[in-house]
Structure formats: C-alpha cells, structure tokens
Design brief:
Helix content is 36%, strand content 16%. It has 123 residues and is α+β, with helices and mostly antiparallel strands.
C-alpha cells in the first residue's frame, strides 16, 4: 500500500510506495527532506477518502489534485463552447452569463480556493 503526503507549498497530494524503514510520520517527513518546517502533511488513504484537501490547518472537503480540477475546468470550457458561438440560441443575457462563467473557469486556478471542488465556479 502507498502512503500519501500533502505538499503545503503547492497543494499537491502525492503517493510513495510503502517502505518498512519509514514507519513513522517523522521518518517519512525526513525522507521527503522536510527540515522541521512541516512542509509536508502525511495522510492516510482513509483521510484522503473522507477529507481530500488539507488547508494548512485541517482537512476540508473537495478534490486535492490540482490536475483533476484543471481537467474538470477544461471539460466545462469544452461543454460550453457552443454557448459563445454567434449562432447560439441564447438570449443576450444568457450569452453574457456563459461568457462570465467561462472567464471564472479560466481564472479559477489562480484563486486562493483552488483546487477545493466545493468552490468550483457555477453558472
């Protein structure tokens, strides 16, 4: 089984193969090169399933992977391409709502709440 760690500087969750020599969280942090500044949070698979994102203080709901959230965002952009075409059947107000939504989607990875999936932009 793999053990998981959260890198606080960039928000990524990564996994490493289980190693009997790395029995404690302290040993795992030392292996990762953590100099005592607690740059990493060691998490269990159970924690990841229950509370996927670490906000620096506690686990919060949402998806921990930035790439997964970017993939979701890219899919949303593709799914709404039709709405910004000149011949779309939308009213001007509906068209504008899609334009604003798509801009929120493009800006989302730079927001402080990224990649918390509970904070995804909504149409």
């Amino acid at each position: 089984m793999n053990w998981l760690f959260y890198t606080k500087s960039n928000g990524d969750i990564s996994s490493m193969p289980n190693n009997p020599a790395l029995d404690t969280d302290a040993q795992k942090r030392a292996f990762l090169g953590d100099d005592g500044a607690n740059n990493f949070e060691i998490i269990s698979n159970d924690d990841l399933l229950r509370h996927p994102t670490w906000d620096g203080e506690k686990y919060i709901s949402g998806i921990g992977s930035k790439q997964e959230e970017r993939d979701w965002r890219d899919t949303e952009l593709l799914k709404t391409d039709w709405a910004i075409l000149p011949d779309s059947p939308l009213s001007p107000e509906e068209h504008n709502a899609y334009v604003v939504y798509r801009q929120f989607l493009r800006d989302w990875p730079q927001k402080v709440n990224f990649p918390d999936s509970t904070q995804r932009p909504k149409l």
